[in-house]
Specification:
Blueprint: E1 3-11, H1 15-24, E2 28-35, E3 38-46, H2 50-57, E4 63-66, E5 73-78, H3 87-99, E6 103-107, H4 122-129, E7 133-137, H5 142-152, E8 160-163, H6 168-174, E9 181-183, H7 196-222, H8 229-239, E10 252-255, E11 258-261, H9 265-273, E12 276-278, E13 281-282, H10 283-286, E14 287-291, E15 298-302, H11 305-308
Parallel strand pairs: 5-6, 5-7, 7-8, 8-9
Antiparallel strand pairs: 1-3, 1-4, 2-3, 10-11, 11-15, 12-13, 14-15
Length: about 300
């Protein structure tokens, strides 16, 4: 059964029926948002059942749309968060991506601005590598981007999409070694993205990020994960009651190949490792439970079938 990410939007009335339907079909609710009288469900559902869900949603004035960024965590890397650099394009993309299902985190290197001193330290590198993909937000000047890029990408293992003021053709020419994706025409500007052309540029960034993530999904499919991150999320919800007391947004953040668990590592790492998944199979048999460099959270990295010899 192939699960695909979708978003359901509809009225609050009888939305429990949609939740029950998704769960009965073998799907998983990743996030649930209630905004006034509207409900938004970001979820994974069986690919063959999308039309069924859409048909049942129609009398309830609900809408089902494909959302390829659901279940992904994106690091938006800005050289600086100060107003003189480029907070607007970075923040606007981060907010825009959240609306369509992604979990985004802003990362700003302590010594990012300035060609002479720009660098990235070990902690910043490790935080970026905990995400599914990084979107680097550079400024307007070719020489600055060309100088900073080799330093700022050093040690980054996740795919990178570069956005900056120069055109895509120029970015491809000056970026060495190559990045995984490029979006030109998005540099430093001192206003929010409100106009039609600016919103279209945000859509262009989302499309490029989606393209890169789809390639990553194809790579994962060649050596499937031992357990679905969405299924693991449900197991943790059932067996670790403390997760329901977490007040941070998305206490369990689903990633493409794991989870971010927003519980203290020292206290909950061992209980997590000993969670029973199925027929005596424990979590530590199928995944690594690691300390996160972001606060005191936990990162769960699910092993591929080639390493665990098990798929559940």
């Amino acid at each position: 059964m192939t699960l695909v990410p979708v978003t359901y939007k509809g009225g609050v009335h009888q939305h429990d029926a949609i939740i029950d339907l998704i769960e009965d079909l073998g799907g998983y609710i990743v996030q649930k948002h209630m905004i006034a009288q509207e409900i938004v469900l970001q979820c994974f559902v069986p690919k063959d059942d999308i039309e069924l869900i859409a048909r049942i949603s129609k009398p309830l004035f609900g809408e089902v749309t494909e959302s390829p960024l659901v279940g992904t965590e994106i690091a938006v890397v800005s050289m600086s968060l100060e107003i003189h650099h480029l907070p607007h394009p970075s923040c606007d993309f981060a907010e825009y991506a959240r609306r369509i299902g992604a979990k985004t985190n802003m990362v700003s290197p302590a010594r990012g601005p300035g060609k002479r001193i720009s660098t990235i330290n070990d902690e910043e590198r490790d935080v970026i590598n905990e995400h599914d993909i990084a979107v680097y937000a550079f400024g307007n000047f070719e020489s600055c981007i060309e100088h900073k890029w080799p330093v700022m990408r050093r040690g980054i293992e996740v795919p990178i999409v570069v956005m900056g003021g120069p055109s895509e053709e120029i970015l491809r020419r000056i970026i060495d070694p190559p990045a995984d994706g490029y979006v030109g025409g998005v540099g430093r500007f001192m206003r929010r993205t409100k106009e039609g052309e600016e919103i279209a540029k945000l859509d262009e960034i989302v499309a490029e990020v989606t393209r890169v993530l789809e390639k990553r999904r194809e790579e994962i499919a060649k050596d499937p994960l031992s357990v679905s991150p969405a299924r693991l999320m449900e197991v943790i919800r059932e067996q670790v009651p403390a997760i329901h007391q977490v007040t941070s947004p998305t206490p369990l953040t689903v990633q493409m190949a794991g989870l971010r668990v927003k519980l203290p590592y020292d206290t909950f790492a061992e209980p997590l490792r000993n969670i029973v998944l199925e027929d005596g199979i424990l979590l530590h048999d199928l995944a690594e439970v690691l300390p996160s460099r972001m606060r005191d959270y936990i990162i769960v990295r699910i092993l591929p079938f080639s390493e665990s010899n098990t798929v559940i």
